[in-house]
Amino acid sequence: MHCPFCRYPDSRVIDSRTSDDGSSIRRRRECPQCNQRFSTTETASLVIVKRSGVAEPFSRDKIVGGLRKACQGRPVTEADLALLAQKVEETIRATGAAQVEAHDVGLAILGPLRELDEVAYMRFASVYQGWESLDDFEQAIKLMRLEHAIDNSDEVSSSDE
Predict the structure, then answer these.
(1) Whole-prediction pTM
(2) Of the candidates 54, 52, 115, 45, which has an alpha carbon nearest to the alpha carbon of residue 83?
(3) Beta bridge partners of 26
(4) Mean pLDDT, consecutive 10-residue segments, the chain of 161 residues?
(5) Which of 35, 44, 106, 115 is the most buried (most CB within 10 A)?
(6) Measured between alpha carbons, how far is 119 from 135 in angstroms, rounded to an integer?
(7) Which helix (H) or strand (E) is 161 found in, with range?
(8) How far apart are CA 105 and CA 112, in angstroms?
């Protein structure tokens, strides 16, 4: 870290604090050359690589925007969307990769969205996965019904014990 006053190529960290949301670290630094103090803010960058090959910084707002379209007219609050976007970001950051394919972001959205609202999930999945016919919808609905039946039978058998 270069000193912004004398351009000395090093500095000493005096104090470090995380931001309220935990997404960045504020460091108070001192230059050993000129003894001036200054602050820096550090964040871990996350880059999304789109299908076209274009790379752009990760944006939680873009996720919320896409989710908002899928959830239009559904009983889903803005707080629900913000929480889901946060879960998605945490999932992506947990991979430890600095660059993530846009496809992987979509995959990270599908699971939590399905738990939040199945109709919104179907809307999002139909666009995201490029469904082209009613058969695609029917197949997804059959799979969801089968999974519901399995979940319900597990609940019944566990309550019998």
Answers:
(1) 0.69
(2) 115
(3) 17, 41
(4) 94 90 85 96 89 92 94 95 93 89 93 95 91 93 90 66 57
(5) 106
(6) 17
(7) none
(8) 12
